[in-house]
Amino acid sequence: MSITDSQALNTHFAISNHVEFKTNPGGLTIAEITNDHAVATVALQGGHVMTFRPREQDPVIWLSNAARFELGKSIRGGVPICWPWFGPHTTDRNKPTHGFARTVLWKVLEIKTLDDGETQIALELINTPATQAQWSYPSQLQIIITVGMELRIELITRNTGQETFSIGEALHTYFHVSDVSRIQIQGLEDCHYLDKVDNSQHKQQAGPVTIHSEVDRVYLNTRANCLIEDPGLNRRIRIAKQGSQSTVVWNPWIEKATQMGDFGDPGYLEMVCVETANALDNVVTVKPGETHRLEAVISVESL
Ligand SMILES: O=P(O)(O)OC[C@H]1O[C@@H](O)[C@H](O)[C@@H](O)[C@@H]1O
């Protein structure tokens, strides 16, 4: 079967009333997940969670209303997977920012309903000559996405070759907020960060993170969970992470968002990226035969 043929995918993997594949006008194949706890969508391109909304809640994940759904282009919003490097490639600026995992096809390994009614979908990046031209190390990259009251995302890297390699990575999660200038991000107090909007200077965080202009920061050596406190939606989003030593906080603010052209209106005001990552000094070394797992569990609490 063709790995993007929705009809064939539905024959093999659909679960009646819970999971159905559809192909959108841009040619992307998308799994629509609905269960007693939540609704979500996942694109096979990029292994990309596009939306997630627990029942009775506003969307937790932000998807731009001007997002482009095109083959080979990253979707603005959701949870792009940055891998096997984060940000620009360190030696070859011709290679795509944030790696190639977010723009290539992934195949479905398994879809199942768990005992408590959660839906779990496992995908694997398809290695091709095009991906191997960018990353020559034999490796296997899988993602396990569990949709329930919480959204759990596990990104699993296996070194299937004979040589040690290092990866940078991120679950580049766009969160939906009522008004980014009114939120507080807790959990990064006193952490050191690299400030990408101030000549990549190293700084130390004082108090919770608040956002009133462009913010692009890589917090280093932090395993802490983060909380996004959003008084406008009367809720707190909790991001609990494992296997991650960096947290990236990003909001492009109005000028950059306008230049990007796919942020929509008022776009930047309704989102913040809090990314579960291993970046810069925190890249991860994976030896032959080893497996590395990066995980984020995203949940919502009332204030
Ligand atoms: O436009 P892209 O490639 O999705 O990247 C968005 C942003 O992603 C963030 O993770 C980076 O820190 C920013 O520097 C970058 O602008």
TrEMBL record:
Enzyme class: isomerase
Catalytic residues (UniProt): 172, 275
A single GO molecular function term of this UniProt record: carbohydrate binding
Keyword Isomerase assigned: yes
Catalytic activity annotation: alpha-D-glucose 6-phosphate = beta-D-glucose 6-phosphate
UniProt keyword annotation of Repeat present: no
Keywords of the record: Isomerase
Gene3D superfamilies linked to this entry: 2.70.98.10
InterPro entries found in the cross-reference section: Aldose_1/G6P_1-epimerase, G6P_1-epimerase, Gal_mutarotase_sf_dom, GH-type_carb-bd
CDD domains, per the entry: D-hex-6-P-epi_like
GO biological process: carbohydrate metabolic process
EC number(s) reported in the record: 5.1.3.15
Pfam families for this protein: Aldose_epim
GO cellular component terms given for this protein: cytoplasm
Protein's name according to its UniProt entry: Putative glucose-6-phosphate 1-epimerase
